[in-house]
Every structure is written in structure tokens, then in C-alpha cells.
């Protein structure tokens, strides 16, 4: 297979690129040149937001394009239109954020979605992703694969969720464990996302798929236990109920990454029906493997993960955590 990877130097794009290389595929990475692409790839440079930014893609044929873009949908529109006569299929890494909020637990791919336009400039994340989906569909029809990922974790993470928990538990001592240990989570290891996307695209699949683990594949407790085991730290979980956390003004998801209190937002984020993806071959590795491999990668960087400049920093300060725990 000949793959054109739009992006391919960070997190999701990097995992997909490395997954394709491991299969012996021929990979061309199109990017701005800010980061080195994985060894073994061919590189083309361009800025999708600039006039003439796609000139490097004016010629060439590929079996598959994978696009992780999360900005203005018009960028997906322009690349998809340019490539549609020279590419077999177009896989767009979208998001479960395209579903209209609130959404009940158990929502499948046919649930209501937000409005979006393939011609739009950058608006909000959900509308950007929906516009990107529509752009891919407009150009490729049933050859467009829409990968609606949920929470993505694993090596190369540049958002700061799992790396924060690993660094926190590595410090040891009593720590704020939110909610209850049995709270089910849904997420996708970036390498499982990459494997499924490449398998599905190679098989000629199209349409939308929710791509996260089955609910309960891991829990908040098993995730934090895995962090403690991977880091080898002596850490004491102080499980704290949602009402106490809310009363202290501590923000779920940002100050306490991954965690959400049970309720409407929890159902929206962690309530996907993934039957369709499972039937199409989705396999999710154990949480212990995801966490251990992320710690190995993070340790190789001295504990400091790369961070996307368009995403806020994650994690509660040591002072706020100590105050809530009465330390």
C-alpha cells in the first residue's frame, strides 16, 4: 500500500505512520516541516492554511490518505478535492465531539450531530470536525472513512492527560483520586486506533465508526493502579467523591485529567456504542500495557511530554491538591 499521511509527525499521525511502516507500506508524509517525520518515510512540505500550501501534492498517486486535521474544514475540503482522482480512499480522523450535546449513553453512529460546513473557516472543535467529515464525504463519498475517536491516550501523547497522572503518581505519597475506583472509562490507545484505521481503510471500509474501547474496558481505579505499577511509586489513593471535588472548585477533565463525574457530560464522553467498530475488528490492548508503554516513552523524555500549544495545560497544582486532602 502507498499511504499519504497528512501530518504524521506527532501523536495520532505519528502512530499511524509508524503502523504503516511496520506493515511494509510506502509512506509519504505531508507536513509543515516543524518536526522530523519518522525514519523510512518520504517527506513533502506545505502549509494547508497558506495560499499555494498544497502545491507539493499537485502530482502523485496513493492508495490511501489519512488526515488528522482539526482546524478549518476548508483545509480538508481543499486537500480532498485535490486528491480525489489520484487516491483510492480517504480516512479522516474525526471525533465523537461531532455528536450533538447532550447525547444519551449508548449512542451509535446514527445519532444526531452538530451542524458543520466543508467550506467553513475554523469555528469550534466539534463544528470543525463535522465540517471535515462533510468535506471528506463530498470528495470521496463511500470511499471516505470517518474515524470518530474518543479520548486518545498512549505513547506520544501531546495533550497531557495520561502523562500528568503518571508524573503525579511517580511523586508518590497521598494523591487525590477522583470519584470512585469502579467508574468505567472509554478511551482508545493511539496504536489501537492506528491499527484499526489502517486495517479498515485497506479493507475498503467507509462511513462513520465510533472508535473507543468498550465501556468498562478500564476503570478509573484500574487506570490509576496501572500508573502506580508502571512508575513503581509508593502512592496512596485518597478517593474523593464528586460533590467534595465540585465544592472545592476543582475542574474535572482539566485539573483531574480523564475523570468526569457521573451525569450528562459523563454519558456524552464515555457512552459510545462501539458495536460497529468491534464487528469491524477493533481490538483494545489492556490498560496496563498502554500505561506502561506510555511511562517508558515519557521516561525517555525525562518526564516532560510535548504539548500542543492549542490545548490548555492539564493537572491540579500540588497546593490545591494538598489543601483538599488536608495535608
SS-based class: alpha/beta
Numbering strands along the chain, what is their spatial order in the largest sheet?
3-2-1-4-5-6-11
The helix tally amounts to: 11
Oligomerization: single chain
Strand content: 15-25%
Main β-sheet: number of strands, strand sense, barrel status? 7 strands, parallel
Uncertain segments of ≥5 residues (pLDDT<50)?
Answer: none
Structural notes for this entry:
This protein is of the alpha/beta class and 327 residues long. Helix content is 35%, strand content 20%. The chain has 11 helices and 15 strands. It has helices at residues 11-22, 73-83, 125-140, 161-171, 190-202, 220-231, 242-247, 264-270, 275-279, 287-300, 318-325, and strands at 2-6, 26-31, 42-45, 62-67, 87-95, 144-149, 152-153, 173-178, 184-185, 188-189, 207-211, 218-219, 235-240, 252-253, 256-257. The strands form 5 sheets. It has a 7-stranded parallel beta sheet, with helices on both faces. A two-stranded parallel sheet has the order 7-10. It has a two-stranded parallel sheet with strand order 8-13. Strand 1 (2-6), helix 1 and strand 2 form a beta-alpha-beta unit. The longest helix has 16 residues, at 125-140.
